Each structure stands twice: as C-alpha cells, then as structure tokens.
Amino acid sequence: MSSARVAPTLAIVGATGAVGTVMIDIINNRDSVPWGEIRLIASQRSAGKKITVRGEDNTVVALAPEAFDGVDIALFDVPDEISAEWAPVAASRGAVAVDNSGAFRLDPEVPLVVPEVNPEKVHERPKGIIANPNCTTLSMMAALGALHREFGLRELVVSSYQAASGAGQDGIDRLYAELEAVAGKQLGVRAGDVAEALAAAGLPAETPFNAPLALNVVPWAGSRKDDGWTSEELKVRNESRKILGIPELKVSATCVRVPVLTTHSLAVHATFEREVSVEQAHKLFSDQPTIVLDDDHDNGVFPTPAAVVGGDPTHVGRVRQALDFPNTLDFFVCGDNLRKGAALNTYEIAETLAK
Questions:
Q1: Is residue 142 domain-resident?
Q2: Binding site, annotated residues for NADP(+)
Q3: Which InterPro entries match (predicted)?
Q4: Binding residue positions
Q5: The whole model's pTM is what?
C-alpha cells in the first residue's frame, strides 16, 4: 500500500514587506493551495506579529537558519543583500529558494523562470535557488514567450513607462507628496514651475526620480551603468535573453519613470524570423490564460495602468504591423508590477515546483 503524499511546507521570507503582503493576498484568494504549512519569516523587529493566512492567524518568526528547518520551498521577497546571504542558507537546510531580488538573476547556475515561458527550468537548479525576473521584463514576457515559440524572436526594442512603486515605498511617498504640492496650483508654461511648487512646499531636493515626477516624465529608471545605460535597461536586455533562451537576442531599451503609482507599461517593437500578422498575434494572445487582449482600435479599447492595477493578468493592446519593418509587430503591454511583476510570478514558480 502506498503512503499518502505529504503536503509541502511553504515559507515566505519578508512576509511583512510590500511584496510579501501581496503574496499573502494572492494565497488568501486562491481557490485552493497545495501547502500543508505556510511559515511567515521576517526581521526580528516583525517577529511575533500575527497575520491571517487562509483564515488562520499565523505568527511571524524571525529570520534565522532554524526557521528553514522542514521547509520545502522558501520564497524570498527581501533586498538583494539579504537574499544573497540567506537564500543559500535556506537551500543548505533542504529548501528550494525562489528569490525575487536581483541577487541571482544572471548567475549561470540559477535559472530565471517565468512559468508561462520556461517552466522546465525549475528542475535545473544546482545551487538550490531559482530567480524571479525584474518586474519590467516580466510585464512583457508572457506575450513575447507566446510569439517567440511560434515565430522566433530576433530583435527587440522596448520603451518602458514605469510606475513610482518600482522605486519602492520611497517612490510612492514622493509621488504623493509631489501631487499634493502641485494640486490646485495655477501652473504656467514655464518648465521651472513644478520644481518651484515642490520647493515652496518644503519638499527636499533629493528624490528617487532624479527630477520632479508630478506632471512630468523622467527618462531614467535604475542606477547608472556604462555608456549612458541604466540598470533597468540592461535588465530588460540580459533577462530577456536568459528567459527566452536566446543568448544573441538584439535588445535595446529605454526606461522611463511616469507619474503612475502602480502598474508598468511597455511599448514593444518585436522582429521575428518568420512572417507574422496581427490576426495571428491576436489568436496567440487570446489563447494564453494569463493574457487579456484589449485591442479594439475602432472603439478606443487598449490597456492602461488605471484599468489593469490590482489584477493578475498581463493586458495587451495596440497590436500593429510595423509599417517599415518586415516580420515586425508593435504592441502595448500593461502589468501590475507588484503582482505579476513580483509576488505572483514568484508564487507561480512555487506552484510549478509543488506539482
């Protein structure tokens, strides 16, 4: 007689943070979960706090080596330096560590996984660690993965329009403060008016965005890298290559911060090895369970951050045949950067492992 399968234990490291909170919300709203125990782990400061998970009070425990004893899968929603230190500890205690930080994304011994695109990679983890991609890359990956399987992606040009929450709580707080500072002001046409209003309101000159974000767009997201590129732009290039398995994929990205709280948007210009039509792309997108096609040019139907925020799917619209580029499509993508861009994909990796 075969023994009954024991349900795996899931741990969430950083359970009280912004992404960890969204993770718990996702778990609470699933129809069913495969876990026998869900263990919440955070800093010593948060230890002892009670959080409701699946209708039961769950006590947060402090991050320590013994916190991973008996854990099968540990989801990390913490800063890079904490993941770099503690994900190997979790793996050494027998857990598969699924990390949402940037600590391991480009490590050749750590798979970078999007379940809709490369789920088989969850089994190739010599370090016992799986990485979750950057939220900007993730927002377009379900759509690109579907197109690449059918037509063979060759070149990619992307412009991202990234929400303030991509810069963390500091980014959210700053945008709110700036909006309050300029609300009701009779601003003229001079470029300095917004900056003057922020200074008059007493806001510090230092900002997560390098320039005022209220009533503005800032063509810079991430940290400075060589030759004028930013870290966010290089993530789009390097992570797309790794996820799609195209090491020589030609990629160019420009990442822009916009005055939106949550949900990243991307304008994608994708060139393929084989001829592709708008009708074929529409069918592929419609067939994907994690994509919503919002594309009715005649009636002004297209995705926007305000309509997409809070939802799990990626929304795609403005699908067009590029006028002067053969085998090329242009389209617009919106995805909630705190859900699919972080918590949801991490959790879906865990579900893939649990299967």
A1: yes
A2: 16-19, 45-46, 165-166, 337
A3: Asp_semialdehyde_DH, Asp_semialdehyde_DH_beta, NAD(P)-bd_dom_sf, Semialdehyde_DH_NAD-bd, Semialdhyde_DH_dimer_dom
A4: 16-19, 45-46, 105, 162, 165-166, 257, 337
A5: 0.92
